[in-house]
Every structure is written in structure tokens, then in C-alpha cells.
Amino acid sequence: RSIAIFASGSGSNAEKIAEYFAGRTDIEIALILSNNPKAGVIERARRFHIPVLLFDRTGFYQTDQVTSLLQKQGIDLIVLAGFMWLLPASLVQAFPNRIVNIHPALLPKFGGKGMYGHFVHEAVVAAGEAESGITIHFVNEQYDEGQVIFQANCPVEPTDSPDEVARKVQVLEHRHYPRVVDEVLQRLG
Ligand code: GRF
User: What is the ipTM for the molecules in this complex?
Assistant: First the structure.
């Protein structure tokens, strides 16, 4: 089975997934893709000898080069790990129930447009939530509204800063995402 990981940022989730599958011969991380030539994920990919494909808006939205490359490579599952652009409908349609994403909050709360990255944790703190967490879900054309696969939560103390919430949530991401990706792959049959 082959995985392609999309990331725009530091790529700590991508790295945890690469570490998790490093010893496995049944699963290969064939490619890491990014829209950001400065993304930390590029250096992390290099350490794991995983090829990186960079693309810009034109390449991603005006052509189908990314989708056709993923199809040519026989990618079985697309894993979004901090990818900041919406996927073109053509890509989502080419991989039905074959794209997963991790959202750093308990969807359906704190989801949707603009609710990503550190801003989510600021919104959770501002709302006085007693807990936050992660949501791993399939990606459909409505993005954060795809079927939920897994959720885990963490307490939010009244004194917690957004940074402290982000840290607790990241612990959950790193603890659960690799295993949940593995479970989804096993269910692909
Ligand atoms: C994580 O918070 C993830 O939930 C969100 O983007 C961030 C990615 O972090 N989708 P990293 O680049 O994997 O460190």
C-alpha cells in the first residue's frame, strides 16, 4: 500500500507517520507534497529519504498534474498533515474515501473556513471550552465535514494559553494519527 502526505508547515505529523511506518514492508510513504518551498517538512522528508514534490497554485488548481501523478504512482491513501490549501474538487473526486485529514479541534466545533493552525486554539480558549482535542476525518468536497474516523480529547484549564492548548493537542496528534492511518489502510482491504 502507498501513502502520499501533503503538508505546508513543519511536518511533525508527517515525521511521526514516517517513523511509525519505517519498519513496515507492507506500507510505503511514496511521496511528500507541499505548496511551501520553505516548509520544515522538506528537511524531515530528506532524513527519511522520501521524495518531495513542490507545487504552486497554478500547478495545483489550473492543471491536474498532481492528481494524475498520484494516480500514476498508485497512491492508495492521501494523508493531509497540516496542509493549508483546500483540495481541488477534481482531486477529491479522484480519491473518494481515500483522503484523510487531521483537524486540531473537536469537529464540528471550531471547524470550517479560516479555522486552522494556531487560530483554532485561540478560539477554543476565547470560548472558555473545558476541553479540546483532535478530529481525524475523511475529506470530501465540504472539507471539514467529511465522515469522522477518530477523535481524542484533552482538558483545557481556565489558565491555559492557546500555546498550552496547542501543545496538548499536538501530543494527541502524534500519539494517534499514525495508528489511525494504519487502521484506515488495513480497512482498504
Ligand atoms: C497540526 O496542528 C494539525 O492538526 C494541523 O496542522 C498542524 C500541522 O502541524 N492540521 P505539523 O506541520 O504536522 O507539525
Answer: 0.95
